[in-house]
Amino acid sequence: MTATMSYAYAVARDDDDTLARALSGLPGVADAPVHLVRQGEMVVAVSPVPEQDFQESALRAHLEDLEWLESVARAHHRVIGALAERTTVLPLRLATVYLDDERVRQMLDARQEAFAGRLSELTAHTEWGVKIYVETPAATERPAAPPAAADLSPGRAYLSHRRAQRHAREDAYREAEEVARRVEDAARHHAVDRVQHRAQQGELARGPGENVINDAYLVPVGHAEGFRADVLRAAEGLTGVRVEVTGPWAPYSFATPPETEPMKRAAP
Amino acid sequence: MRAADGRPPAVAQEPLPDRQIALIDLLDRLLSGGVVLTGDVVLSIADIDLVRISLRALIVSISEQMPAPWSATAPPVRDGHDG
């Protein structure tokens, strides 16, 4: 028998007692069953996790292990996804851990009002990811330079090739800038808030191309299809740029209210 | 959800099978989004940043030092000169 702690996933309102069903049979972190800790009509989805893995130092070490991190992240997301299919959820940051369920209840009790307020604001909204990729000649192996005239010396042919490559890249960035503008226009019609994530790089970033924009938009449910369609249209007719839309997501990026004014204000 | 205009969607739209979701998209949200509470295991934001740093090869976060090639997503300004 191992000692356990309480891993908290998300907060939601459950006034008609239906959320427990959404969680039944669903494996949480460490494959443990997920239950609800309740305070009035507010609930926190919680599951027991082995204390030895989630104590501070162990947790810190584990989080550097990509495989471990992935399994926790996917479980976290699975639980939030199941809830989000039924209701508005307020996701908690990955690896929010309490000593026991009673501590979770105390936390919920103390913050009930703030949670309820944000949940109301997020009702009937989902998050959408928009990523813009520049498909540079290097990435696409686009024959940017015509295998330059045979009468050029190797040195000059090389330079001419490099120049052509550079121009193609500059064009691609310019196009990406145009696409970003179009996406913002689309967003003005449909979205109520935006969070900019860091551009994705490194081994986990899946190309093709270079990710230059990695944004999340908060979109009213009724606007979701229009938003998606308009955003996907933004790259139409442009060859060096690709737009990817992900979602709908639970409002991970918008769990806390914006510190600055929402983007609507920026609309001309 | 259907593809709004018949073109193939850029990504699978079903929210269900989580294995289809790219880990990096998930980590973008789970490591920087969500409500931050001080649980009983105090893993500070700084620690999460540490995670980012130690996974630098995987989830690089160099945009502070190396900004995007342009600042198109800065709040729209109308008074600039257009090309």
Textual characterization of the structure:
- The complex is a heterodimer of chains A (268) and B (83).
- With 268 residues, chain A is α+β, with helices and mostly antiparallel strands.
- Chain A folds into 2 domains: 4-122; 125-266, Alpha-Beta Plaits (2-Layer Sandwich), CATH 3.30.70.
- Chain A has helices at residues 19-23, 51-54, 56-62, 66-84, 101-122, 137-140, 154-190, 224-233, and strands spanning 4-13, 35-39, 42-50, 89-98, 125-134, 193-197, 210-220, 241-249.
- In chain A, the strands form 2 sheets. Chain A has a 4-stranded antiparallel sheet with strand order 2-3-1-4, sandwiched between helices. In chain A, strands 6-7-5-8 form a 4-stranded antiparallel sheet, covered by helices on one side.
- In chain A, helix 7 (154-190) runs antiparallel to helix 8 (224-233).
- The longest helix of chain A has 37 residues, at 154-190.
- Chain A starts with a strand and ends in a 19-residue tail after the last strand.
- With 83 residues, chain B is mainly α.
- Chain B has a domain at 9-62.
- Chain B is 24% helix and 0% strand.
- The relative contact order of chain B is 0.07.
- At the A-B interface, strand 1, helix 3, helix 4, strand 4 and helix 5 of A face helix 1 and helix 2 of B.
Strand order, largest beta sheet of chain A: 2-3-1-4
- Any idea how many domains of chain A? 2
Largest sheet report of chain A? 4 strands, antiparallel
Of all chain pairs, the largest interface belongs to: A-B, 82 and 56 residues
- Overall residue-averaged pLDDT value of chain A: 88
Q: What's the helix-strand series of chain B? A: HH
The end-to-end span of chain A amounts to 62 Å
Category by helix and strand content of chain A: alpha+beta
Keywords (chain B): Gas vesicle
Protein name (chain B): Gas vesicle protein
GO cellular component, one term (chain B): gas vesicle
Subcellular location (chain B): Gas vesicle
